[in-house]
Specification:
Elements: E1 7-9, H1 11-16, H2 24-31, H3 48-59, E2 69-71, E3 75-82, E4 89-96, H4 101-106, E5 114-116, E6 119-121, E7 134-140, E8 151-152, E9 155-156, H5 158-185
Antiparallel strand pairs: 1-2, 3-4, 4-7, 5-6, 8-9
């Protein structure tokens, strides 16, 4: 993965591991409880942001492991968030970080993040103080960029869900990738 790319859609793995020969992600969409209340005859359809929220959550661990959407090793968590005042979807991306210099001076001998098989993980032992600095970047997702939700026989259409995921990934990369690049310059690789 490019050093400054927070998210990547893994089309090759999706096709290669597809039980139906089309899309592994599509199989997860068909089984996902996140879409149950929409798309069936007589039920309302989700608005584009709700649909994108469900599509993205389905594309990421823990629903899909490995995910249809892969993350940079410095991405610790990804979650969706809804604004209180204006109902607007955003994605919260939590990144491994370094502590501010005054904290770094105090915590030099403490245990911190570890690299394990290319990923950043919390330490397994707690024999002393542990410091796990992170940054959380919230990325608003413009509703006008999202596709209209589409279903076939009560199941989200793969093309519509992929489009929603692609929009969210592009927005998250636009905002979070420069932060990852700055962290890399600070030594978090």
């Amino acid at each position: 993965m490019d050093l400054a790319t927070a998210f990547r859609i893994d089309y090759a793995h999706d096709l290669d591991q597809a039980s139906d020969g089309i899309s592994r992600y599509g199989a997860y969409l068909a089984r996902s409880d996140l879409f149950r209340e929409w798309g069936s005859a007589g039920t309302p359809t989700a608005d584009p942001a709700e649909f994108a929220d469900a599509a993205v959550r389905t594309a990421l661990p823990p629903v899909m492991s490995p995910g249809y959407v892969r993350t940079d090793p410095r991405v610790v968590t990804v979650s969706t968030h809804w604004d209180d005042d204006v109902v607007r979807l955003s994605v919260a991306v939590t990144l491994v970080s370094t502590p501010p210099e005054p904290v770094a001076r105090v915590s030099r001998s403490w245990t911190t993040w570890r690299r394990d098989s290319g990923r950043w993980t919390e330490p397994h032992d707690a024999t002393g103080p542990v410091l796990l600095p992170t940054l959380t970047v919230r990325v608003p997702i413009p509703a006008d960029l999202l596709p209209t939700p589409s279903y076939r026989d009560g199941v989200p259409r793969l093309d519509s869900a992929r489009h929603a995921v692609a929009v969210v990934v592009a927005e998250c990369n636009r905002v979070a990738s420069p932060v990852l690049a700055a962290l890399a310059l600070a030594g978090v690789r």
